[in-house]
Structure formats: structure tokens, C-alpha cells
Amino acid sequence: MPDSGPAAGCHLGLDLGGTEIKAAVMAGSGTVLAEGRAPTPRSGTPAVIAAMHALAARMVGDAPVAGVGVAVPGVVDMERGVVKFVPNVPGDWAGRPLAAELGARLGAPCLLLNDARAATFGELSLGAGRGCRHFVLMAVGTGIGGGVVANGELLLGSGGHAGEVGHQVIDLHGPRCACGGWGCAESLASGPALVAAAVRAVAQGMDTDMRAACGGDVGRITPSLVAEVAAAGDRVAAELMDALAHRLGTAAGNLVVVLNPERVVIGGGLSLAGERLLEGIRRTMAERIGWYLRHAPVDVVAAELGAHAGALGAAAWARRRVMG
Amino acid sequence: MPDSGPAAGCHLGLDLGGTEIKAAVMAGSGTVLAEGRAPTPRSGTPAVIAAMHALAARMVGDAPVAGVGVAVPGVVDMERGVVKFVPNVPGDWAGRPLAAELGARLGAPCLLLNDARAATFGELSLGAGRGCRHFVLMAVGTGIGGGVVANGELLLGSGGHAGEVGHQVIDLHGPRCACGGWGCAESLASGPALVAAAVRAVAQGMDTDMRAACGGDVGRITPSLVAEVAAAGDRVAAELMDALAHRLGTAAGNLVVVLNPERVVIGGGLSLAGERLLEGIRRTMAERIGWYLRHAPVDVVAAELGAHAGALGAAAWARRRVMG
């Protein structure tokens, strides 16, 4: 179906990250036309907004823009289009009417959405959740974000804050979490939790190839290093990956019994560890909630959209809202 | 609005429990006309179904019945009206086409629903969730059941199994749960968990009035005994109640960050412990997810419908489905 006339303009998605701004352009038909990225300025809010606008202008050119969606790594007031709290992007964000400012610059209605919710909507529209009526996304990286789809719709809750799946407590007496709580899935099963466990193993003198892989400098241990050493057959690293999968599987199981989804989608940087991680999550769910899965089976799959999930989801969200 | 004509017949709710069958009759207008109960026969499925029919007939008399809802303490196939698994009512339930059997006897369409979901729908229609777009129910008794309301609708998930809030894991290394998992909220924060902690305290020789209250026989300790002794000022019993509230508050907090409800409704027998329990749940949520509640405040309130929540909810569910 060709796009024609102003009402069929393109839909732009912007994903504001701590190091990069990503963008996606979607036709009125839903086809993805372009993807792009630019560094996030470190010099404050006006520079960041200018960079978002410049990236958008470069991506869109002279094409009419029907709607803009912005994925924000923090708390937003979706109704008013105002940013409330953004921990990881330098600048003065609280109270910023970002939707109005960007909308005016781009000449189109602009909507804000939390970035993990945007990624969830992206997977629903274009990725691993396509055709699913009920699924949950767990995006596992430095933190654990996510989102919930119920009855084919993104679940927002009373203020758009539903889907903070990383701050479920899975260990009453677990470690302090960056959120201020303790024992959250994010404190136990995120990238930093995996790195911490690997650092301890190396520093304790365990017999592991992770020591050679980091050149003896534990500051160079990353989640991918642990995953790679595990994949190459190292027993200690494999145990760490399996412990991580057990904790993720426990958190995923919690979501399953509460939400009865058809599918659990694992995204974020750690999902690149692949089938071993997914298999560990499936095994844990079978151990812990096998009674439930007998009546309510669930698939565990990897996310499909990678690093552009947020921008694609934001574009799809704008399209959905503008086109109704 | 007067009820007239066959389409405006009454709606009957039946709640099948391990010891009692409860019933409620609702007018087409939504007004509750009558409530009743009868013992659950111990002699097998045909006797139980006959007792449900007899109670229904006694409640309804000659009035036309427009719809019947049945709350089942287990797993049902909602689409087909077939029971799949009922652990606590003697009989041969698996595969039983209960909706067809009762519907034929009562001459009206019959719908099955899990009992905790029925109670949630009851609180939504007539109780503590009235007017709420987003809430969760935790029903705390011998087990912990519950349900989720999102966007003003009962959340069913892909097969009607959403809302098993008691089988969220809150302690990775917690005790074995009746479900086969371990560390579930139900294993740590239900009536039996409270009784077990009280038995240990008494048997260990702690200085507590619970010993006198049970006449030295720990087999007589009940959740209400602990709650009453705590309310009378006993420090040990009060600590047990507060520990229970902490665990319930942790589980409730998990639901809040995932679902962003306006309200958490606490029901079940233990909710009769009252304000001390609710206050402990609120305090725990403030400690653990205070960061979240700043942007997404939530009320914690007691359920309103008591032991008839399931029957009322089942009647309301039938009415809603029949009237559209």
C-alpha cells in the first residue's frame, strides 16, 4: 500500500540512551524505512534535545512526519508528555515538557514512553511477540527492565509504570539493589551481578580460564567475557551462567504465575549468551512451577529486535496512537 | 429498575469449597438478593454436584435463572467449562464437564472460573475494588490466592490462570511449598507458615502468652490465636505477625512494580488480623519500593466481601457474561 497525503506521513521513533540516541523511521504501512544513531551529548538537556532533533531531521529529510514516539530511560508522565526522572542521562530532566518541545521542532504530535515499555511494544509489533496476545519481556543488561503485553495490548497500569520486572524481590535477604531495595532480580541476575560473581571467583583463586581471559585484571571482566569462557567449556564460568539463568528463571516464573503469558521474551545484552541461558531459564521454570506449566505452557524465546527495539517500538507506538 | 421477562432472570453464583458450598443470587440489576451455604459432601463428585444443585434450587425457587457462575478451587478450562484439577474436594474431578452438567440441571448457561479469580471479580463488582481500573487481590489463608484487574477487567491471561500471586518466589532458598516449588510467598506468608513459626516459638520455650492461649497444646495454635495474642500485646506473637506482614508486603511490592495498580486488596482469613497487618505491608512496600511509590502511589486496603466473595463474584461473572 503506497503512502500518500499528509495523513500517511512517516512515524519517527527516538530512543534516548545514556551513550547513544537511536532512531527509527516507519511508514504509515508499518514498514521500517530507516534506522540511525548519534552519540548522546554529555553537556546537558538542551544539547541532548538538539541532538535528538538533528538526528530526527537527518533521518526524515523532507518527508512529512505524522507522529513521533520517544523512549525515555526513566519515569515519564505519559498523559502530559513530561519527563519526571532520568537517572542516567546528564542534564536537568525533571519536569521537562519533552513531548511539547520535540513535537514543536518536528511539527508533529509527540508521545513519551518508558524505554523498556517501548522495547516491549517493539517486540509486540515487529519482533518476538508478534501475534502474541500475552507475553512478558525481560531485558537483561546493566539493569533488568521489561514490559507486559496482555490481551494484545501493552499493559501500562495506572500511570504507565507497569513492567518493572527487575525489581521483583526473589531473595528476601538478598543484596542491596541500586533502586534502594534489596534482593531484587536486578541485584542478583543482571550483568553487574554476573561480573561480581566472576570477580569473586577469580580473586578467590578458583581454577578458571576467566583469569587468563581478563589478563589477570578483574576490572576487564564483562558479562560477555564470562559467557564466552563458559561457552568454551570452563566449568566455573558455566556455573556462574547457570546460577544467573536460575535466578532469571525464578523471576520469569514469578511473572508467569501472575500473568499467564504464552511467551517469555528475553532481551538485553545478556540475551546474546544464547541458548544456554534460555535453556537454564526453561529448566528452572520446570523445576519451580512445573505444576503450573502443565496447565499453562509457556515458550521462552530470545528477543528479536536487538539494540533498536526501543526506537522501533517508539515509532510503532506513535503510529498506533496517531492512526488509532 | 424492575426485573421482568426471562432475559432479566437472576444470576446465580456457586462457590465450591473443601468444607462448604456457598451461593449468591444477584438480580439482573446487580442487586444481591440472597446468600446461602451448605456442607460439601465427602462422598464423591456426584454427591457434590447434587448438593450444588440442591443449594441452587433452594436459593432460587421458581425464579428464572439467566446465568450461573461456578467458582472452582482449582484449575478449570474456562472455554469448555471442564474441570481439570481440584486438589481439596474429594471426588473424581479431572475432565468433569461441570458447566454442562449444572447448566442442564438449572436450565441456564453456566460458566466456570477459578475461585480466587471469582473473589477478585467480586471485589471489583461489589467490594474493595469498586471503581478501580487497576488492582490486585491477595487472599491470604491456608494458601495465598489472588487475582489481577487491569484496565477495569479481570486479567485472565492466555488460559484463565493469571493471578497465582501466592506462587511468586520471594526467597530463592526458602522452604518447600505445597505446589512443589520452594520459597513461594505461600510457603512463607500463609496461615500454615504463621502457625509453624508460632509452634516453633512455643516449643523453643520462648516467653510468650501463646503457650497459655493454646493450653500448652501447640496443635491448637491457629492464625487467629497468634493474631489475638499479638493484639493483646505479646511481643513474640507481634514479631511473628510483623514478619508475616513483611513477607506479604514483599510479595505485594512485586505485584505493584509489575502491574502498577492503584490498589492492593488483602483478603482471606488472615486479613481479619486487621490494621496491624495492613500497616506492616505498607511499611514494607515503603522500605523496598519507595522509589517506585513516589511516582506510582498505591493504596493497601482490606477486602470487603469476606467469605462470600467467591459466590458473589461468580454471580457477577455470570451476569456480566450473559448481559454482555
Q: Your description of this structure?
A:
The structure is a homodimer of 324-residue chains. With 324 residues, chain A is α/β, with parallel strands linked by helices. Chain A is built from ten helices and twelve strands. Chain A has helices at 45-60, 98-106, 115-126, 185-189, 191-203, 210-213, 223-231, 235-259, 275-293, 309-323, and strands at 10-16, 20-26, 32-39, 65-72, 75-77, 82-85, 110-114, 135-140, 144-150, 153-154, 263-267, 299-302. In chain A, the strands form three sheets. Chain A has a five-stranded mixed β-sheet. A five-stranded mixed β-sheet of chain A has the order 10-9-8-11-12, sandwiched between helices. In chain A, a hairpin with a 4-residue loop joins strand 5 (75-77) and strand 6. In chain A, helix 1 (45-60) runs parallel beside helix 2, helix 7 crosses helix 8 and helix 8 (235-259) packs parallel to helix 9 (275-293). Chain A starts with 9 loop residues before the first strand and ends with a helix. Mean pLDDT of chain A is 95; it is low at 1-7. At the A-B interface, helix 8 and helix 9 of A face helix 8 and helix 9 of B.
Topology:
The structure is a homodimer of 324-residue chains.
Chain A (H helix, E strand, L loop, with lengths): L9 E7 L3 E7 L5 E8 L5 H16 L4 E8 L2 E3 L4 E4 L12 H9 L3 E5 H12 L8 E6 L3 E7 L2 E2 L30 H5 L1 H13 L6 H4 L9 H9 L3 H25 L3 E5 L7 H19 L5 E4 L6 H15 L1
Parallel strand pairs in A: 1-4, 4-7, 8-11, 11-12
Antiparallel strand pairs in A: 1-2, 2-3, 5-6, 8-9, 9-10
Uncertain stretches of chain A? 1-7
| General shape of chain A | globular
Helix content of chain A: 25-40%
Give the SSE order of chain A as H and E letters: EEEHEEEHEHEEEHHHHHEHEH
Strand order of the largest sheet of chain A: 3-2-1-4-7
Radius of gyration of chain A: 20 Å
Biggest interface pair, counts: A-B, 52 and 52 residues
Taken as a percent bin, the fraction of beta residues of chain A is 15-25%
**Helices and strands of chain A: which structural class?**
alpha/beta
Largest sheet of chain A: 5 strands, mixed
Q: End-to-end span of chain A in angstroms?
A: 18 Å
Oligomeric state of this protein:
homodimer
What is the count of DSSP helices of chain A, taking H or I runs of 4+ residues? Answer: 10
- DSSP summary, beta strand count of chain A: 12
Mean pLDDT of chain A: 95
